[in-house]
Amino acid sequence: MLDLIAPLVVSNATKIVLVSLDGLGGLPRPETGRSELETAELPNLAALATEAACGLLRHVAPGITPGSGPGHLGLFGYDPLRHQVGRGVLEALGIEFDLRAGDVAARGNFCTVDAAGRITDRRAGRIPTETCVKLVERLRTIRLPGVEMFVEPVKEHRFVLVLRQTGRGGTLSGRLSETDPQAVGERPLAVRALVPKARATAGRVNRFVEGARRLLADAAPANMVLLRGFDQLPKLPRFPEVFGLRSAAIAAYPMYRGLAKVVGIEVLKTGGTFADEVATLREHWNAYDFFFVHYKDTDKAGEDGDFDAKVAALERFDRFVPAIRDLRPDVLVVTGDHATPSILAAHGWQPVPVLLWSRYCGADAVAAFTERACSAGSLGVLPAHHLMPLVMANALRLTKFGA
């Protein structure tokens, strides 16, 4: 799609806003038969849906559960099966770590394990960031042979581990398995090399994990670590060059800033709330053509298995819709990077609703922004990386294909 789009791009002064509600999609609550979107009072989103083209986005393939990385890359127009980036790289870039070619980065969680070493909480109760900073200081005392090691706090229970090769350390590889079994009641897994050249790197990471086990033994609830998303810095096509857009990202959470950076979208400084993000959007409105705006609260509640909290998060977002519309974007898209149904308390494989509003969208008969309502919309079930061409067309930024 990127090779097809780039030659068709034409300049224009139109403004585009793409809002991603992280973990947007859900499933019906057994007691009521209604999903979080169907339960929430969302008058502003419903009004917008009546004026928009609606549908469902599938981010990878039927039955495949996407991570936040491939989910958002799809929204940016990148086929996630062709362009893959590990979560560690995204977290490192998101905190403005000086990640270099050849470095191996991993996303870390502080977690809770019981006396038998089994995981009881994969996020250690979402410890405060201040506690994370103190525990990271402990981990920095670990020494690994032949590499320079960096451990950096991110937010709440999250941290980043980066290994950098030295002259005597040999070449590192990010082709490693994860230590997170993605389930409570299980023990953290040993890291395995996925290719022969990654064996030395796997050995160093396992040594780090064992050191962390010893250093955190008295630090309950954050008495162990989980590592996932090992990768090295990739080279991806640059979003502003492919689409010809002055592009900006507004996100409170580091990983999503990292996602923007890895494709060349400029990251704007903002505060920690969505109100801050909307204020940043307003402040920089005249300087950019394309804005990616991220909303985290829906995913956080879904992963906690808290149906009512996710409903409340959706209703909070709905109250900001008029402020975004008041800026008069030429194209406004509201969707998500994946589903996080509260009844799963995890990412899901279900397609997520999408609405695309513009003067030229050809509004369909959808009257609510929900999974079932949007399934009847004119966009149908759309591969996520096909969304940006539609956005560009509605922004009058594409010329015709062929003679």
User: What is the CATH class designation of the largest domain?
Assistant: Alpha Beta
Globally, the shape reads globular
CATH architecture of the largest domain, by name, is 3-Layer(aba) Sandwich
Q: Give the biggest sheet.
A: 8 strands, mixed
CATH topology of the largest domain: Alkaline Phosphatase, subunit A
The domain count comes to 2
- The arrangement of helices and strands along the chain is HEHHEHHEEHEEHEHEHEHEHHHEEHEH
**Mean pLDDT across every amino acid position:** 95
Instruction: Estimate the helix proportion, in percent.
Output: 25-40%
Q: Quick one: CATH superfamily of the largest domain?
A: Alkaline Phosphatase, subunit A
Count of individual beta strands: 13
The percent range for strand residues is: 15-25%
Low-confidence regions: none
Number of helices: 15
> Which strands sit side by side, in order, in the main sheet?
9-8-10-1-11-12-2-13
Structural class based on helices, strands and sheet pairing: alpha/beta
Distance between the termini: 19 Å
